Amino acid sequence: MTAANAADLKRQAYDAAASFARSQGPGESLLVLDFGAARLKKGTYGAALRSGTFFSNEEIGTALQAAAHGYEDHHERGSVTIAYVNSNAFLGRPGRGYKAFDEVTAREAGEQQAKTLAGLDLSAHQSAAIGGDIEPGYDAVAKPEVAIAMVAGANSASGKPYYDVGTAPCTGGNCTNGWTPRDICEVAGGHGRVALPEIYFAGVVDQPSQWAKIQKTCKIDSFAGVSSSPIGPFSPQGSWRALREKTSAGVDPVIVVFPG
Amino acid sequence: MVVALLSVLAAGAAVACSSEDGAETSSAERDGGDIGRAMTETIPAQIDAQPQTFVSSEVLRPVTNAWRTASRERLTEVDAGALAADRSTGAFAIFRHDFVLTRQDVTLIEVKDSGPLRITKAPIGAGVEESAQRDGEIEFVGAHGVRGTLHLSDDTVSLKEG
Questions:
Q1: In sequence order, what DSSP letters do the residues of B58-84 get, joined into one string?
Q2: Of B29, B39, B50, the CB nearest to A8
Q3: Cα torsion for B55, A236, B5, A182, to the nearest 10°?
Q4: What is this model's ipTM?
Q5: Hey, are the CB atoms on A34 and B11 less than 8 Å from each other?
Q6: What is the residue-level pLDDT of chain A in tens, covering all 260 positions?
Q7: How far apart are CA A198 and CA A256, in angstroms?
Q8: Residues B58, A205 contacting (CB under 8 angstroms)
Q9: B32 at the A interface (CB within 8 A)?
């Protein structure tokens, strides 16, 4: 999402879901709307888009409702889960006008993210969920416990799976910015959490191997899919195959391709 | 066979799905057709000293600063920094979002041995939202001293002598 105001956020969400509805297959589908980094501004929880603009969870909820309408207006077949995704970018140093998160406020941010879904009016072939692009490399200031608290809060307040579309940049027992593999488990594994690992690279940065180790450490039975990008050498299907070949866990047939 | 589609919009929307054996079965290559629309508000051209970035932290890290603007029809953001896998290589991640076509794409430009890049001069303010995306000149410096210009007209970089 890249809107400059709430009306445009609704417009983008509607258009994206409408376009998605027209192109989806006959089965279940998952539409992930990434609203950028979780933020707390003057006591209001929400998210700042990657292009910078802050929106409250109330405004994001309105956009999610617009997405539901866009999907419905152009629905041809299949069903969809619409996911409100944020990220952990700069939770500890969020910039001017925002309050840095601690474990308490981060947990509350997660809870509020989940509660954003409560008022949505969805059709019989729609549902809603939450998730995060949780990347240790996104935040060099906040402790891992802050992002973990955000995910825990979201997970605790939602009856749906939490979708992690992030990274696991670990070597041995150490990961980027002080994270550990066990920290990754708190985001990508365990009750109510499912991962679609980022698989962009397999050279100097060997993401399939990184996630294979995480899978063993976290005892993940199956991944919900993969996240891919043309910015790396893999085709979308190549990302999926690379993860499946490296891990003993199942990999569901879902591929996120960024950007689209 | 379960067929699922998944799209990330923030960042990107796109989507592919596969069968159990990994064979591609469908693709949501954007087919916006008549769906997309212009936005109601533009974003004046600006340099952001602390951008989130549109790409993964495994692609670009550190991210030094960014330049962005949006007309009613499209947005462009240039994130400056270095490759996460090799900080001696400076890099730009250029993210574009066409609102009318409901299409997004990203291009990675590398500058070898420059160190992390920082944008030093670029079109700024209102009134340049469309022209700057079309043929803007983004001046930059690398941590190792190299200076140059990113040309948005063709996504190429020219380096200054000395």
A1: TTEEEEEEEEEEE-SSEEEEEEEEEET
A2: B39
A3: -60
A4: 0.95
A5: yes
A6: 999 999 999 999 999 999 999 999 898 888 989 999 999 999 999 999 999 999 999 999 999 999 999 999 999 999 999 999 999 999 999 999 999 999 999 999 999 999 999 999 999 999 999 999 999 999 999 999 999 999 999 999 998 999 999 999 999 999 999 999 999 999 999 999 999 999 999 988 999 999 999 999 999 999 999 999 999 999 999 999 999 999 999 999 988 888 85
A7: 9
A8: yes
A9: yes
Q: Residue A212 has which token pair?
A: 């294979």
Mutate which of B1, B2, B5 to disrupt the A interface (most A C-beta within 10 Å)? B5
Q: Which residue has the tokens 């790409």?
A: B55
Region of B66 please: left (phi>0), alpha (psi -120 to 50) or beta. beta
Report d(CA A90, CA B37) in Å as an integer: 32
Q: Is the pTM for the entire model greater than 0.80?
A: yes
| Distance from C-alpha of A114 to C-alpha of A155, rounded to nearest angstrom | 8
Please state, as a whole number, how many other Cβ atoms lie within 10 Å of the Cβ of residue B40. 12
According to DSSP H, which parts of chain A are helical? 6-23, 57-73, 103-115, 144-156, 181-188, 207-218, 236-246
Nearest to A230 by CA among B71, B5, B48, B27: B27
Ramachandran angles phi, psi of A256, nearest 5° = -90, 130
By C-alpha distance, which of B5, B131, B11 is closest to A12?
B11
Report the amino acid identity of residue A187.
V
Q: Which residue has the tokens 């996911």?
A: A83
Residues of chain A with Cβ-Cβ distance to B51 below 8 Å are: 50, 52
